[in-house]
Amino acid sequence: MKAFVYRSIAIAALVYIIMVTGVSNAAYLVAVKAGDSIRYDINVTYQGQSATGTIKLTVQSVQGTLITGTYEVTVQGQTAGQPEQFTLDVSTGSGGSASGFIIPANLTVGNFIPGEAASVETIGDWRGRKAIVANASSPYMGFMSRIYWDQATGILLESTGSLTETQFSITLAETTLWSGGLFGLDKIFIIVVVAVVIIAVVAGFMLRKKRAQAFPAMAQGVPPPPPPPPPP
Questions:
Q1: Does domain 2-178 have CATH number 2.40.360?
Q2: pLDDT of residue 190
Q3: Coil, strand or helix: which one is 208?
Q4: Pick the residue with more confidence: 195 or 144?
Q5: Hey, how many other C-beta atoms are within 10 angstroms of the C-beta on 8?
Q6: Element (H or E) spanning 49, and its range?
Q7: Domain-by-domain residue ranges, the chain?
Q8: pLDDT, tens digit, for every residue of 104-156?
Q9: Which helix (H) or strand (E) holds 201?
Q10: Residues 6 or more apart from 181 whose CB is under 8 A from it?
Q11: Of the candidates 41, 85, 40, which has an alpha carbon nearest to the alpha carbon of residue 67?
Q12: Are the CB atoms for 187 and 42 separated by under 8 Å?
């Protein structure tokens, strides 16, 4: 089972990267910087067995189109592996374990994706982020995948697909590149919105209570005056 788990995580992390293909020496934009980190959640199912884990990339340096950093895989229920060093060239997609996780920023429809046997098919929305979308397939390997990268930064957002009897998903869990939270909104903004709603509700209850205390007769109803005394 342990071998299956590690093999499944390796498949999920690398399977959507089909092959490195030749590209021109066109200038590509790198939007990540030293100190940036990206963490992904991974789910793999193989012949009825499931495995989950995480992948974390940490950028250590950026020089031109070359990115160096560490790549760390953690499998649920297993001892965390040691971080591996990587050197990724986004102009070719060559980068070992890190290939495909970071591509050039600001690609648009029709642009070739370095290192991937695919071009940008469309621009879509991924949880509030503008994403470039591509489909990758290899009939010989029985491989199919739909992939989303963040257009502004070039980092992988999500990859879901299958390889023969294996289904996998790699989904962005958190990153330091932006403070995006729910629906791509800033977490602080979300907290402020929630706080404003709570304050408004509490204020409404307090105002209603004060009005009841200030006008008890109106709140409870004014009793009718007593009848006049009978004539002597």
A1: yes
A2: 30
A3: helix
A4: 144
A5: 24
A6: strand 49-63
A7: 2-178, 187-220
A8: 999 999 999 998 878 999 999 999 999 999 987 766 666 788 999 999 999 99
A9: helix 187-214
A10: 187, 190
A11: 85
A12: no
pLDDT tens digit sequence for 36-80:
999 999 999 988 888 999 999 999 999 999 999 999 999 887 766
Q: Give the pair of three-digit tokens for residue 1.
A: 């089972």
Is 169:12 a contact under the CB 8 Å cutoff?
yes
Sheet holding 122-126, edge to edge: 84-89, 66-75, 49-63, 37-46, 166-175, 156-163, 143-150, 129-138, 122-126
Q: Which two tokens stand for residue 222?
A: 């004014």
How many helices (DSSP H) and strands (DSSP E) are in the chain? 3, 9
- The three state secondary structure string of 101-161 is CECCECCCCCCECCCCCCECCEEEEECCEEEEEEEEEECCCCEEEEEEEECCCCEEEEEEE
